[in-house]
Write a structure and sequence with these properties.
By secondary structure, the protein is mainly alpha-helical. It has 18 helices and no strands. The longest helix has 31 residues.
Length: 390
């Protein structure tokens, strides 16, 4: 008896090592040694001329490829057309194989490689989603009737460990292909698809943040809100999404009570948060400072909108140094700080802050100029004392 899939895929596509038979994922197609099907398939595998091999394979499929036996032929077609870099034909036969064997993980991974190479992003993600579904089904699969549950659990553990690096490749491919897209709307969509199917991936946290940011860049804030709320439903302490929602709602004067709750909860979580995986300590400190700044700034804006002037001043002052590297957020923060100081009749404090806001490249520059004009203009420049004439 022979299992042709393992031999062919390992030789031609260099994918993950084959699992032990007991841990096999997908159908295990067997041929009786010496049978007509076996002899004919051996002739196909031993043919060295590609055109002759394809001719023999067509003949084998026509004569013997009934039911699940067609899987063996489809595997060979995928290998053959991969060698020719005939992507469309490889996808055609790969899809036929997956229709017969939805758990053919080796084929799905091979097709991801091809789709990445072509490139065909939609296929990368559709095959990646297939891989995730296969893994989920395998992880929850019960032992066969009469099998020892403990032994089956150990087999599954070993099989999953062998697949670990291959699944990491799938995750990395989906993540990088997603975030490299220039179109923000597409980038957001693909990154959300990635975190939906691989929520525990090493790259999931980065992808979630990038997806929320991409929705904002694409000017589809409602999609961003829905996405952020979905992430918070899965992790109630996900401070990044709390800050995203608090900042958006505070800026747009929406859901102020919910925004305040998110901002207040996020601040201590950020302060004690461990470094995110995949970034340097320096980059983490920058991200942490930005998130803290945004949380305090959102809280300050909420106080402004709720006419809590003293609390607004304290929160916005706390946010300012944290946001200084980011013109948009720093300019906005300065403007609202100057505005609320002016509203509280603290004009002498408001003037220098609004004056600085007019020098920052942000959409709030003109608003700062208007407010400054209303309270008597910028702080007069100090003149040097006149020298006495001799």
């Amino acid at each position: 008896m022979r299992r042709y899939l393992i031999i062919l895929i390992a030789l031609f596509l260099l994918i993950a090592p084959a699992q032990a038979q007991r841990g096999q994922i997908g159908k295990n197609i067997m041929l009786s040694a010496g049978s007509p099907e076996d002899k004919a398939l051996t002739e196909v595998t031993e043919a060295t001329d590609p055109a002759k091999k394809l001719e023999l394979l067509d003949k084998w499929l026509a004569e013997h490829g009934k039911g699940d036996l067609a899987i063996l032929a489809y595997e060979m077609y995928v290998v053959h057309y991969t060698g020719e870099r005939n992507y469309d034909k490889a996808f055609e036969y790969g899809d036929k194989l997956l229709a017969l064997d939805p758990d053919a993980i080796n084929t799905a991974i091979s097709l991801i490689r091809l789709a990445s190479e072509k490139p065909d992003l939609q296929r990368v993600f559709s095959y990646g989603e297939r891989v995730a579904a296969i893994m989920e089904r395998y992880q929850s699969s019960p032992p066969a009737e009469g099998a020892n549950p403990d032994e089956w659990a150990e087999v599954k553990k070993e099989t999953l460990a062998e697949l670990n690096s291959t699944i990491s490749f799938v995750e990395y491919t989906m993540f990088t292909k997603g975030y490299q897209l220039e179109d923000a709307a597409q980038r957001a969509e693909l990154l959300e698809r990635f975190v939906t199917v691989f929520p525990k991936s090493f790259y999931a946290s980065q992808a979630q943040v990038m997806a929320a940011d991409a929705y904002q860049q694409a000017r589809t804030p409602q999609k961003m809100v829905v996405f952020a709320q979905k992430m918070l439903a899965a992790d109630a302490d996900y401070f990044w999404m709390m800050v995203t929602l608090a900042d958006y709602w505070a800026t747009n004067q929406e859901q102020l009570d919910a925004a305040e709750a998110h901002a207040r909860k996020a601040i201590p979580l950020i302060e004690k948060a461990p470094k995110m995986e995949g970034i340097t300590e320096e980059d983490w400190q920058k991200q942490k400072s930005l998130q803290l700044g945004l949380a305090w700034s959102a809280l300050g804006l909420i106080h402004v909108h709720k006419n809590r002037d003293a609390q607004a001043v304290d929160a916005l002052k706390t946010a300012s140094p944290l946001l200084k590297p980011y013109d948009y957020y720093y300019g906005r923060n300065l403007y609202f700080l100057g505005f609320v100081l002016a509203r509280a009749k603290r004009v002498s404090e408001a003037r220098p802050i609004l004056t600085e806001a007019t020098t920052v490249n942000s959409p709030y520059k003109s608003r700062a100029q208007e407010t400054l004009a209303k309270i008597g203009g910028p702080v007069p420049a100090k003149r040097a004392p006149a020298k006495k004439r001799p």
